[in-house]
Amino acid sequence: MPAPVLSAARVADLVGPTAGEHPAYQVVADSLRLLIADGRITVGTRLPSERDLTAALGLSRTTVSSAYAVLRERGYLTSRRGSGSVASLPTGVVRRDTGLHLSPDVPEGTIDLTCAALRAPAGMTQAAEAAIAASPGYLCGSGYLLSGVPELREVVAARYTERGLPTNADEVIITTGAVVGTAIAARALLSPGDAVVLETPTYPNIFPTLNQLRARISAVPVEPNGWDVPTMTATIRASGARAAILLPDFHNPTGNLMSDDERASVAAALGRARITAVVDETVAEMGLDHEGPMPLPFGAHHTDTISVGSASKSHWGGLRIGWIRAPRRLHDSLVAARVPFDIGAPVIDQLVLLHLMRDAPGITDERRRGLVEARDSLASALRSRLPSLRFVRPQGGLSLWVELPEPVAAEVTLAAEDEGLLVASGPRFAAAGGLDRWIRLPYVLPPAELVEAVERLARAIERVAAGSAGSAGPAGPAGSPGSPGAARHARGRPAHPRGPLVA
């Protein structure tokens, strides 16, 4: 497959003005490095020839040649026979265009805060042994169970009923994780070009599916302290959408929890507009110190709701098991949307989860106490070391949504990598651009590691403020002294990546 190509005009637009206190070749190299590292120019994309970019930027051929040479030296550009100069990443640098931080490429000693997921719980080995013991009853078939293991469907249905949404097992479909479940729901509901209501910020792994469907996004804001429900209902009314994708339960990334009254108002607006809700409940079980009873599941307020759940947060992401809870009348369309790319979740993994959920349908008290301690340690370290950063302490979920004093999230993310810290910048979560002041900081690691992460973040922020981001670290500088972050910020053109994250 030929590499995608960026025109010289588009690259010149992304690079922006090149005049400034630093040499022009350095500004071009720094800008392109930031664009590649933050996913706005995706890995594998062919950049324009030096001659074409020279004309587009209005610079000398020597300037552009020098910038490309710096990028090749640092591993951000690779020359391929027949493909010209192709965007790449240095060894050990995580690909920000996919956000899949599951490989040994993460350097040793690096603290990875891009993935908001817990390690496996106690009892995993026993659950795996129980699954193997129960597997003979499934070995005589093909193993492709489009709706899932019946016993697991019953346990999931019982949990919905316990939470206040009466559910039968035939209303549940087991999937290969919540990302797949949400994609199935979107494909079942949307035709190319349809409008969809989407929160911003939101969990970004839905973006590829919506991009493939060429969906038109009507974005609704989620503020640090909750939803602007009047604006949300007005947007729903005017959207002409077929579906709304919502995260009302300890919203990722803000941690907000939508109240029953707010759910009722949003549900009424969706009902009047005849819009189906696709509700991501991946973090619904992750209440930490929320006072009072949990709100009812969104489907209890809006019957035309497809609920998507997952064991990745409450139990373990390595199982890759999720589910869809939907009215029975929608099941044929959901199964039809599923078959082209997911014909059944692994049976053994389903049996492992069955054993775990019979013991604890959500997180255990021990894991909850550990998360509270980690959250409070991270919050305390931020207040002490970085008092200029602002955040709302959530009562559930797995991360803090942190506001920077300046719109330099992409620059801070890049500088943090050089300090041995991987974090996700706010623009990744943006459904309609922006969020340049925000970063997401999960509290899923031990408190001591989180305190160290804050120290590395502080150094990164100090380097960006001083204009020295990118001057050291495993990826090395992008040219002579100077900063991709500082250069980009000075021009007022921060990056706006929208690549997906794994968790």
UniProtKB/TrEMBL annotation:
Signal peptide: none annotated. InterPro entries: Aminotransferase_I/II_large (IPR004839), HTH_trans_reg/aminotransferase (IPR051446), PyrdxlP-dep_Trfase (IPR015424), PyrdxlP-dep_Trfase_major (IPR015421), Tscrpt_reg_HTH_GntR (IPR000524), WH-like_DNA-bd_sf (IPR036388), WH_DNA-bd_sf (IPR036390). This is HTH gntR-type domain-containing protein. Residues 468-487 have a biased composition (Low complexity). CDD domains: AAT_like, WHTH_GntR. GO terms for molecular function: DNA binding; DNA-binding transcription factor activity; pyridoxal phosphate binding. In the C-terminal section; belongs to the class-I pyridoxal-phosphate-dependent aminotransferase family. Residues 22-90 form the HTH gntR-type domain. SMART domains: HTH_GNTR. Keywords: DNA-binding, Pyridoxal phosphate, Transcription, Transcription regulation. It comes from Knoellia aerolata DSM 18566. The lineage of its organism: Bacteria, Bacillati, Actinomycetota, Actinomycetes, Micrococcales. It holds the Pfam family GntR.
